[in-house]
């Protein structure tokens, strides 16, 4: 019951954010970069439903564009890093022995570097930009997915139909592609959903620190940094972007929880 | 000591106990037998006020003269261990793995009997020795994982005896143990019951153990109490077809094997929701009459007790 | 037990070693020439070469690593390219602030979360449980830096009770403490949400176990069962998460120090990155990673203290 609610609420939040982001690519209530200094920090009105920012730009328009940036960077980074990590995990599982041992040790080691710190380092190294932030987040996801994929794949490799395939002389790559991947898809999708939530948080933090999106690009984290300088005059400027981040992270988190319980009903019953 | 009248336990999927009436006298040893899922544990738990939250109880329960019908958790809690105690089937997992044996047994002594630690320690040592645990002094300092299953069951018995309860409910105390240890634990329970004048409810599906340990027998099936009577009498001359089935199904030739196999009666035990409305045994019973599935048989007197079966109905 | 400890201690040292190699390697691969950033683009090639050799940059990489690692062992992290002072000094000066933040946030988390989680587990399925679950689900989704901004809005802008940022220095202890209140709370609230959830689910797992039924059958009061038997058995997953949380808090300070303009290690890290002060960045990243590895090692030690089954195999 609770898990059904998680799934629905998560899907609704994610759907809303994704829709806002998609629409912003084609249309926003106001042009994103239209500066109107005479009309800065305007109160909400029919023309500007959430008011305007310190440069007179329409807040709602910028939040929508922020959704597009945030979600695309987070999802893209998780897909890229998750894809590479899954590949490595499959490789480790298929080969076993030394290869597996070495790859997993490397993963262990990578967990000694706090993720955000690593992203800060990489973002700094390659210069502050949204693309580099995405690459840094992708990098962090590699060992996470390598570990999940390898663990799940190891459980599939010992199943009958895989053993039969091996006995029939099929190669490890072919078995991995045809049998392992479909059978480990569920945990990977769940993990990806949850990691997108983490990635949104990371992108927001990096952009807040000035290491992510650069002006005039709209980014929730960046908007919060700008709003912080105006706390005394325009407190609501600092509320909306944070709400958007929270809603997006909450949405993906709930969706991930709901999907996990849906994919593995055994867990639900154990908790009930 | 214990009096139960018309006790029923309704679970969402069906009745786990139906209209059970039973009493156990001071110092009496009662065997409770029946296949898995008959409701034996549910009855034991009801006597501890520990049925699962999902179960709705109705009927009367009196403990030592005290009416516990509809009692709350707060009302039951002080009676547990002091009036009724219970030990369970699986000794391997029934002890807190992080607490030393000594501390475990001392806990109720300090908490309920307000003993000082020193006295509680001495008392715990006595209790462990009484249950026949070897080297009790050393075992007091050990953790559960350092003990064998039989040793742990002895610890659990010592724990149950700590506050000198009037009744001990032993729910399949030997099922998880190997044959020899099981025999010793059974004998231990009988000895403790005799020495202390403590009533014993011995739940088992091992008829040989029940024959050895108890004076009176109650047979359960599908949440019903189908037959009661003196143990020897019921085993020698079972009146209810279900009891007859249980006894017949028990493997005879090799006494060491008896414990190993569950009794097998043709057909499978239906799930709670699928039980017939009348006699629960209808559908599996070899002597079934047309009215059995629809009409519940009343209990009829037998040589030393009662049996609920339409066959026993006096001819009109 | 000793074998377990020796294995873990060896793992700890090896991990630290590996971490230092990785940090060094990554930093060496980064673009940018320290000599250039020190002398500026107008410097002559000769001056640049001289500066490189003065910084030890012309030696081969293994030699440079050895020199750096040996120095680090003695607390000598080299001289900051940007500030022209020993990196060790820069760090030592800022460490107390960052440590106070991190330890303070950890302490507040440990005071808040386990109690909430246990209370929720004890009322499993009830309105109290539901409230804790909903609040913590939201708490996990709130970024710590937005939480900080909200706290500033309420307590600094609206109520004016606490400063919105800045640090007055340790020579004014009371003011220093006031400056740390909001950042500590911001860090702790988010982590408390995580820990309360973990505590709750770990406790619920334990509550299904047989020995809890034994404790109930022994007539132990509910509270005592929860605190004396359920909580200790739930500690293994809880302690594991606490270790990970300490790492999260330590990295969290980097962002939070920025929100509150606190001159700690995180600010130093961001400044050094902006200044291309690689040698300082290198030392800081090593330090942060070392804190994380140490936290994990302490968690391993805690396992041994919690669970007697890990200490011997007598059975
Ligand atoms: N917690 C519970 N929730 C739902 N059904 C239960 C629960 N405990 C027992 N039952 C059901 O009650 C019936 C009686 O079970 P039990 O008393 O354990 O039988 P026995 O001890 O004789 O094997 C069974 O059908 C069982 O499935
Ligand atoms: Mg049972």
UniProtKB/TrEMBL annotation, chain A:
TM helices/strands, residue ranges: 71-94, 106-124, 130-149, 230-255
Domain ABC transmembrane type-1 residues, every copy: 67-256
BP-aspect Gene Ontology terms: transmembrane transport
Similarity section: Belongs to the binding-protein-dependent transport system permease family.
Membrane-topology descriptor: Multi-pass membrane protein
UniProt superkingdom: Bacteria
Name of the protein described by the UniProt record: Peptide/nickel transport system permease protein
Gene Ontology CC entries for this record: plasma membrane
InterPro entries xref list: BP-dependent_transpt_permease, MetI-like, MetI-like_sf
Organism expressing this protein natively: Pseudoroseicyclus aestuarii
CDD domains in the record: TM_PBP2
Location in or out of the cell: Cell membrane
Keywords: Cell membrane, Membrane, Transmembrane, Transmembrane helix, Transport
Automatic annotation (TrEMBL), chain B:
Primary site of residence: membrane
SUPFAM superfamilies: P-loop containing nucleoside triphosphate hydrolases
Domain of life: Bacteria
Occurrences of domain ABC transporter (ranges): 2-247
GO molecular function, one term: ATP binding
Cellular localization per UniProt: Cell inner membrane
Stored InterPro entries: AAA+_ATPase (IPR003593), ABC_Ni/Peptide_Import (IPR050388), ABC_transporter-like_ATP-bd (IPR003439), ABC_transporter-like_CS (IPR017871), Oligopep_ABC_C (IPR013563), P-loop_NTPase (IPR027417)
GO cellular component annotations of the record: plasma membrane
SMART domains assigned to the protein according to its UniProt record, in alphabetical order: AAA
Keywords assigned: ATP-binding, Cell membrane, Membrane, Nucleotide-binding, Transport
Pfam family, one: oligo_HPY
Signal peptide: none
Gene3D superfamilies per the UniProt record, alphabetical: P-loop containing nucleotide triphosphate hydrolases (3.40.50.300)
GTP-binding listed as a keyword: no
Gene Ontology annotations of biological process type: peptide transport; transmembrane transport
Membrane topology reported for the UniProt record: Peripheral membrane protein
Keyword check for Transport: yes
PANTHER family documented for this protein: DIPEPTIDE TRANSPORT ATP-BINDING PROTEIN DPPD, OLIGOPEPTIDE TRANSPORT ATP-BINDING PROTEIN APPD
Family of the protein in this entry: Belongs to the ABC transporter superfamily.
This protein's name: Peptide/nickel transport system ATP-binding protein
UniProt source species: Pseudoroseicyclus aestuarii
Automatic annotation (TrEMBL), chain C:
Subcellular localization(s) per the UniProt record: Cell membrane
Superkingdom to which the source organism belongs: Bacteria
Pfam families: BPD_transp_1 (PF00528), BPD_transp_1_N (PF19300)
Transmembrane segments: 12-30, 99-122, 134-157, 177-198, 230-259, 279-306
InterPro entries named among the record's database cross-references: BPD_transp_1_N, MetI-like, MetI-like_sf
Alphabetically ordered keywords of this record: Cell membrane, Membrane, Transmembrane, Transmembrane helix, Transport
Record-linked PANTHER family: DIPEPTIDE TRANSPORT SYSTEM PERMEASE PROTEIN DPPB-RELATED
Protein name: Peptide/nickel transport system permease protein
Organism name: Pseudoroseicyclus aestuarii
Lineage of source species: Bacteria, Pseudomonadati, Pseudomonadota, Alphaproteobacteria, Rhodobacterales
């Amino acid at each position: 019951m609770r898990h059904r609610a998680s799934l629905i609420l998560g899907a609704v939040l994610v759907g809303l954010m994704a829709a806002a982001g998609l629409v912003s690519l084609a249309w926003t209530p106001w042009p994103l970069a239209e500066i109107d200094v005479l009309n800065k920090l305007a109160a909400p009105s029919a023309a500007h439903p959430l008011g305007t920012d310190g440069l007179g730009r329409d807040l709602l328009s910028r939040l929508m564009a922020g959704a597009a940036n945030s979600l695309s960077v987070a999802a893209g980074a998780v897909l890229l890093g998750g894809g590479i990590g899954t590949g490595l995990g499959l490789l480790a599982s298929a080969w076993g022995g030394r290869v597996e041992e070495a790859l997993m040790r490397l993963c262990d080691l990578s967990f000694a570097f706090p993720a955000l710190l690593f992203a800060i380092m990489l973002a700094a190294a390659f210069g502050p930009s949204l693309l580099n932030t995405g690459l840094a987040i992708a990098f962090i996801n590699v060992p996470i997915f390598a570990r999940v994929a390898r663990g799940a794949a190891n459980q599939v490799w010992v199943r009958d139909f895989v053993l039969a395939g091996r006995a029939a002389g099929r190669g490890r790559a072919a078995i991995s592609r045809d049998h392992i991947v479909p059978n480990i898809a569920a945990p990977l999708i769940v993990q990806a959903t949850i990691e997108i939530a983490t990635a949104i948080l990371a992108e927001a933090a990096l952009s807040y620190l000035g290491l992510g999106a650069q002006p005039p690009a709209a980014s929730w984290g960046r908007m919060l940094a700008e709003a912080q300088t105006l706390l005394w005059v325009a407190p609501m400027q600092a509320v909306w972007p944070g709400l958007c981040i929270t809603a997006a992270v909450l949405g993906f988190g709930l969706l991930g929880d709901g999907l996990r319980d849906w994919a593995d009903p055994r867990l639900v019953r154990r908790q009930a | 000591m214990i009096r139960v009248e018309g006790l029923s336990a309704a679970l969402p999927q069906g009745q786990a106990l139906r209209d059970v009436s039973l009493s156990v006298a001071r110092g009496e040893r009662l065997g409770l037998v029946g296949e898995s899922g008959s409701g034996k544990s549910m009855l034991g738990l009801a006597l501890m006020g520990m049925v699962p939250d999902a179960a709705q109880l109705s009927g009367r329960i009196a403990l030592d003269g005290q009416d516990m019908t509809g009692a709350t958790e707060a009302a039951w809690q002080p009676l547990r261990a002091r009036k009724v105690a219970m030990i369970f089937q699986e000794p391997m997992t029934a002890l807190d793995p992080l607490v030393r044996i000594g501390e475990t047994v001392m806990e109720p002594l300090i908490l309920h009997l307000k003993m000082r630690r020193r006295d509680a320690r001495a008392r715990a040592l006595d209790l462990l020795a009484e249950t026949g645990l070897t080297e009790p002094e050393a075992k007091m300092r050990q953790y559960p994982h350092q003990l064998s299953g039989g040793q742990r069951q002895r610890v659990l018995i010592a724990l149950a005896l700590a506050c000198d309860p009037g009744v001990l409910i032993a729910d399949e105390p030997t099922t998880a143990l190997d044959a020899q240890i099981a025999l010793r634990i059974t004998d231990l329970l009988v000895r403790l019951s005799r020495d202390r004048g403590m009533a014993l409810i011995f739940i088992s599906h091992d008829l040989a153990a029940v024959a050895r340990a108890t004076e009176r027998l109650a047979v359960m099936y599908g949440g019903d109490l189908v037959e009661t009577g003196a143990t020897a009498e019921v085993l020698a001359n079972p009146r209810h077809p279900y009891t007859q089935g249980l006894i017949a199904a028990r493997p005879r030739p090799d006494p060491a094997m008896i414990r190993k196999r569950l009794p097998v009666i043709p057909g499978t035990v239906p799930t709670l929701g699928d039980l017939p409305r009348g006699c629960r045994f209808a559908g599996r019973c070899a002597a079934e009459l047309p009215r059995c599935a629809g009409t519940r048989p009343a209990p009829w007197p037998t040589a030393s007790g009662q049996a609920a079966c339409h066959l026993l109905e006096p001819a009109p | 037990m000793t074998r377990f400890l020796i294995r873990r201690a060896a793992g700890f040292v090896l991990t630290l070693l590996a971490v230092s190699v990785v940090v060094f390697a990554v930093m060496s691969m980064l673009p940018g020439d320290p000599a250039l950033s020190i002398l500026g683009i107008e410097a002559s090639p000769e001056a640049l070469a001289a500066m490189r050799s003065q910084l030890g940059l012309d030696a081969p990489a293994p030699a440079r690593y050895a020199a750096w690692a040996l120095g680090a062992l003695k607390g000598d992290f080299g001289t900051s390219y940007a500030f022209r002072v020993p990196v060790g000094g820069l760090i030592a000066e800022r460490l107390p602030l960052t440590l106070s933040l991190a330890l303070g946030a950890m302490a507040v988390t440990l005071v808040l979360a386990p109690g909430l989680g246990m209370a929720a587990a004890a009322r499993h399925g009830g309105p109290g449980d539901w409230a804790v679950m909903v609040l913590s689900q939201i708490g996990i989704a709130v970024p710590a830096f937005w939480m900080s901004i909200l706290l500033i809005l309420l307590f600094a802008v609206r109520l004016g009770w606490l400063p919105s940022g800045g640090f007055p220095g340790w020579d004014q202890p009371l003011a220093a403490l006031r400056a740390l209140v909001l950042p500590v709370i911001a860090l702790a609230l988010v982590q408390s949400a995580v820990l309360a959830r973990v505590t709750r689910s770990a406790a619920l797992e334990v509550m299904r176990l047989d020995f809890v039924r034994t404790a109930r059958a022994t007539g132990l009061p509910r509270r005592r069962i929860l605190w004396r038997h359920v909580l200790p058995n739930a500690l293994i997953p809880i302690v594991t998460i606490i270790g990970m949380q300490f790492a999260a808090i330590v990295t969290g300070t980097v962002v939070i120090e920025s929100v509150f303009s606190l001159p700690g290690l995180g600010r130093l890290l961001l400044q050094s990155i902006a200044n291309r002060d690689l040698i300082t960045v290198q030392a800081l990243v090593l330090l942060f990673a070392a804190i994380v590895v140490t936290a994990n090692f302490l968690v391993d030690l805690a396992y041994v203290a919690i669970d007697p089954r890990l200490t011997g195999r007598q059975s």
